[in-house]
């Protein structure tokens, strides 16, 4: 299987032979060049790893030199001795012998020696600079090339998949795979590998240096080092597991927040704000506990680690000094070389483990990605196979087709369906929803293959035909047409490549779209917005029709092409469709039967079978499925021939965010302009948030001050550990130069005991710091999340219309901002205190012992600090920069995947693949550039320390020889300063978090400080006892805050007396729902007023007003809890008893249905009520409104989205609920409102006539016209 296969983009890649071989698997996209680069990079990493142990050899020799020099100086203090031929003589010429009868060496030329050592250091440093540069640059750029290839192959493969595969894989998941998973692979195969090799090589060479120097000591140190390794491993595991737990427990709270914010209108209408804030806070408690546990455990482990390390020091120095003094096996230099060699090895082994983590997640990600790449699509749209017929008549036949969707194999959609569609005729499919009408169309487009039976075109099984060619014959207009976010002309061009502008204009004329396009300022170059969001439904539909027309298709599929439009647009679009049908085989699916009267044949569907076929009049006589549908649709109408307002399938959001509904053509362009300008300024405003003052953040953390104090104390102790270590370490070196052995032993034992004391102290202080700051930080996070959430629920509804305050954006803000703020307090303070004490103590020590040397080293400090910052940066990786560059490609991929059906229908997969590959150029180039920069920075940061050592030890040698500085002070100063320098670097690496924390805090505070335009507090506004429910609108003018230039209400005057029913009718967009939202006080009118019981609404207490109103909307929003709890939501002021629930449910015709369920009222309704049908959800919503026992009932198209049977039970439930209440009804179907006391006909935001049904019919005005003809109200 391992032969090279060419896939379409001409990339060589090998099929993996088995899933376990990491290399073969993860690196299967590597070409020869990449492999060479990776091998060379790997070698460089090996050499780089050996540099530090090499340096130790130099360091050891240097120590010996210093010790010998010190001994010589001490001996020569006695004026009777002198130095001859490198041996010490008495002045009288006899050789001086020590107590052990050995001669003493002298004449150490310390400066020459030091110069030599300095050269060694510089040499090693330059070597390191080169190898580390190549190590990083090669690996990162090789990885960039492979990842680029991988992305292209993956995307192409995904676009090749059949539609059934997309049903089983969510688009969001695929998008994250394209970004996150491939990034994980990138992390695994880029710098991580080389750093891993480098660390392992340091580990190996470190031990080698140790064993060569002195095996006994090495073994003793090795015996202890597993303790360090185990602790590091355990800590990583514990942290990962706890983080998982913490995230999981926060996810619960996040889900609550998301649910509440996405249904904010329902929450506001039922006054559930406080209840929801409580529910959110309850879920936060758990996350807080896990966070504290995590902090504590990290503190414990860190303390344990340091404790072990210091004990290890004590042991090694004690035993090592024995070997030096008693058995003379080691020289002081070798002692240091062995000890540090082993220590370095152990440390690097520990640091290599995070790389393994990256490999593991990379491999897991690679498995998912490569499984997709290796999957052979069942229907391959790129394949060249299959016949292309010379002549196409257009006869379509289904032979005994059985089919179920791959995502839901248990539901049979088509059951042995057979039918024939004649060429050149228009055939209409009718039937209840779910009977398989749209499915037949998808089978014919070959989105799916039937499980049994076959579909033929002119007698050929379509599975034998070429897919691209077959799809090029078909034009399709869907219910919700998908437009791509480019210009109108480009969208039409998608229909057929290489068409001229004349063709496009011709097509738009035929589609009745030419006039509205020409009126737009940019005409054909107008951008349609994402998903066509800037166009109204009718405009999108007509552009889609033009796109289908330009293909000049033989076969036309219309899937409910007009169902989502209002009457006016529908007439225009219908006319365009009728023009289009001539001379083509057409299949039309419709819910509104009026649109298919004149079809050549009508096929009735039921339960996945075609049960009847014939013309309109034949089927009416048969009295089958079609007849029932027609009669149901005409019921209750005075005029049966016109069934215009039947089944108005409006797909709108909950309480219909009208603010985002359709704009009329003329204002469209201005709105686009104002919107984009406004967004620009607002985006800028959002970017330039002033970072919040730390004082204010700390104020929120005030109650935790004891914790913060204890934490800071712990941090201060931790900070002073490093300088103490420098003192003790140099002291040990100093003891070797003491002549008297007993004295020497005594001193060494004393120092070892000190090491033990430091060990124990650091254990406790780390634990303290970890626990105290975790506690204060988590409490702060929880507090901020809660107040943030409460502040969100306090805002007026208009605030949520702003796209920047979409539920998704707000929930992420709660999740991330609040936890980021924690970074500015607890741990940050700890970090600062720690670094400050460390640096302060180090400098005091250094300046005290030798200010000259300190100044020399200080020149290198900024560089060492910088290298510390780089090290820290590298660990976080450069992944974030890549994300920015990937955004453009991400747009293409997400748009392509979201609209995969449309793309497949237009056979445009390849153009999206090309566009994606083009967008990848930029990130690829930047990745290669980054490899070089990253390599340079890495090399620089690695070699700085060598240079620093070279300079400072050379100068130290000079000071020792010319100024008689004790050599142990040289070591003390250098160790102290270097250590504090690295600490500085580490501390500064925390600053990005700090800056982020401040801006995050600022965003939160901006939210907390915002004063809502409509206050929902219980204190503001007036309440009164006998609420009657008399409502009056006086000259109301209103525009939505997000679209100030579209006048929605224009001098609305209408009133309703207590207990009356007022019905609003009118075409969509005339302001019916808006008036309801003004009454709920989601918004306030710009001019005029709404009077409630004679009081202006803006003076009324909001919670009081809303408690008197019950609302049932077209798409009721249910919460993810039981049926009982959903009904109880109707009254949030007190707890609702089960009796009241039963009572309300009975009134809503719901009780009997609930009793049939296994869990009765405890049945969970699922997210957004997904477990229930629409009729059932609607009745729960009615019961919820009844439980409120409101004085005013608002019904916003409460039945328009139901099928005819559920509609009747819901309608009777509503009639029951209306008794004795003031009621405002909005309806698209006129049959439902004939009994209303007042019917108000609206147009363009004003009432044009109002009266009862009979009087309006007698008037023969707009209402009469509406009922009899269904003509749009102009």
UniProtKB/TrEMBL annotation:
One Pfam family in the UniProt entry: ABC_tran
Q: Which Gene3D superfamilies match?
A: ABC transporter type 1, transmembrane domain (1.20.1560.10), P-loop containing nucleotide triphosphate hydrolases (3.40.50.300)
Keyword field contains Plastid? no
Keyword Glycoprotein present in the record's keywords: the answer is yes
Specify the protein's topology with respect to the membrane: Multi-pass membrane protein
What InterPro entries does its record include? AAA+_ATPase, ABC1_TM_dom, ABC1_TM_sf, ABC_transporter-like_ATP-bd, ABC_transporter-like_CS, P-loop_NTPase, Type_1_exporter
Q: What is this protein called?
A: ATP-binding cassette, sub-family B (MDR/TAP), member 11a
Protein encoded by which gene = abcb11a
